[in-house]
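Reproducibility note. Readers wishing to regenerate the assembly model reported in the main text can use the exact inputs given here. Chain order matters: entities are listed in the order in which they were concatenated for prediction.
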Amino acid sequence: MSFPVVGVVGAGQLARMMAGPAIELGITLRVLARDPAESAAQVVPLDPSTDIGSEDDLEALRRFAKHCDVITFDHEQVPTAHLRTLEAEGVLVRPGPDALEHAQDKLHMRRRLSALGVPCPRWAEVSTVDALGAFGAEVGWPVVLKTPRGGYDGKGVRLVAGAAEGEDWLARGRPLLAEERVGFTRELAALVARSPHGQAAAWPVVETVQVDGVCREVYAPAPIAEDHATSAQQVALRIADGLGVTGVLAVEMFDTPSGVLVNELAMRPHNSGHWTMEGSRTSQFEQHLRAVLDLPLGDPSMTAPYVAMANVLGGDIAEMYSGYRHCFAHDPGVRIHMYGKDVRPGRKVGHATALGDDAEDVRARARHAAAFLRGDIDG
Amino acid sequence: MSFPVVGVVGAGQLARMMAGPAIELGITLRVLARDPAESAAQVVPLDPSTDIGSEDDLEALRRFAKHCDVITFDHEQVPTAHLRTLEAEGVLVRPGPDALEHAQDKLHMRRRLSALGVPCPRWAEVSTVDALGAFGAEVGWPVVLKTPRGGYDGKGVRLVAGAAEGEDWLARGRPLLAEERVGFTRELAALVARSPHGQAAAWPVVETVQVDGVCREVYAPAPIAEDHATSAQQVALRIADGLGVTGVLAVEMFDTPSGVLVNELAMRPHNSGHWTMEGSRTSQFEQHLRAVLDLPLGDPSMTAPYVAMANVLGGDIAEMYSGYRHCFAHDPGVRIHMYGKDVRPGRKVGHATALGDDAEDVRARARHAAAFLRGDIDG
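Running the prediction on these inputs yields the following structure tokens for the assembly.
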């Protein structure tokens, strides 16, 4: 048994952050990039004859897969039909298309989670203004309207105060997902990993702070009652098992006075798990590699009582390296990760993590570094 | 100020382990490799027109340095004259040749450390059998005889029971370093980092366990009295400052009842610091990058009360990946690092690290993983 080659479809920051753990494990990481300037493509040796191409192009996927022992993903936007073809041709695809579809299609996800008895917000598939109106009348306005496919970071999601407001999206002729607007106390994420042979490991449940649909900060562990945290982990493990997930599964949830409700799924390392790079004995990136290779999973326990992560969003400063001097002098313990991406307003270009014994202190430290790097604070 | 390019001369495992931290900091790491199959060259994007060449070849160094903002080292075996030429041509070389020479030439090192008042074993420069005999008569036999240049992992070092035994090496016509054989209680390493602007940071002093001149295990912190640990750190910091070191400096020492004595120096990340990858908030590889870039240094404190590292030496098993299943199932907390090197008997091909609350337990865990991977234990 020789050291395997893991191929990642997509070359964003998630693939990039798998590179370090792959190097240490002696595993070869390859990425399928649309462009050699992409985040992960900058840092991984690239064979232009096989590693440049689109995930929409079956031939490109085939060429890429030929020199990989297993295929996994930087994002879920890969045509399921292509993945089924690759599988039929003998390629190991992890997570497999049957599982992945639940992270691609929110209607599919809601149907399946409801069938599994997983607590979800009330929801309906709506194709007409009348159906949307009836759903709103039942659960109360405003209603959350989602396109089943292609949404991320707040895109493909909107609040509608009445059925007429959904008319434009409905006019596209594809069914939408309507969900009740949940009165939550906070948003949570439960991150787990599962291997093909069924082993699973759960990190502590975290609180995620979203602004305009974009994750800004993550706090580990979430400041919630133990029974809510346990039930959030159980829900995530039940989903991982029920859907046959391989690799990391992130379950975004609403915490409500009566319990947790599942919001979204991601089947790959996730922004809510970046804190694990220093905050857990096994990072989500290493764990994902171990899971897709069917290696025994690593210890997900924390390396400090409290960990906070703040995303670095594009702001006024184009060259963030200039902020390192201040950030590191100000706080020798802060951890900065940069993704090699051009700065654009609001774009996730990096993150900062702080660890320590005081929940408020680590939040303030991570927040300060992220704000300074993007140019919100004068040194 | 844009994200810099750090060029590492040499492409062994030390350069390889800088790759992960460089990726996360958004810093571009380049390596000058003799061969694209070398440890670090496997994992870093390589430009064959500039990144393949020998450190003995000034033109190769020039070509390589041209697309780097700063040059540093995987090993010290780079001609000082070449580095002085590069410096004169405006290349930033860190550590600089004046400092590096002390890690290249053990006679030079002994002279300088003695001048700095650093505690060393008694030593003499010997060019003749008579001089060796006189030194042995003074300090007692056996005497440790060293070639000033080129030794590592026990090579270029031998014990001689009398002057006649040194005749063959002396016949080469180059002066040798003779040292008293120190009756030590254990071997220590004090690892520090120093930046060009003079900031320094010290990791906890570790115990190193050597077998036949090769490091086998490292225990952090060293189980020694606090005053010995403090004085070992002070000695290392004094050397870093006195020699104007930039980057990581590893000072190998003997612990004796009457205090610590300096054995060897290395001016780069060092085997005695591999435990810092998970065992310290800032690893030696990230710290070295921060130091050579003159960024403020990171927190060197430990992430667990006890950390042990065991080197994986080449043994009976050529394909060590087969051992991952057992090692990770046996111990979800063990950390394995592999260097992508072909297995040869006794060659360092990887290491295993364990962290925890019990000193004996972490040693046993790291030792078990390393022994299993090389084939010393049946599953």
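We highlight two features of this model. The longest strand of chain A covers residues 247-256. Chain A touches chain B through 50 residues (CB under 8 Å).
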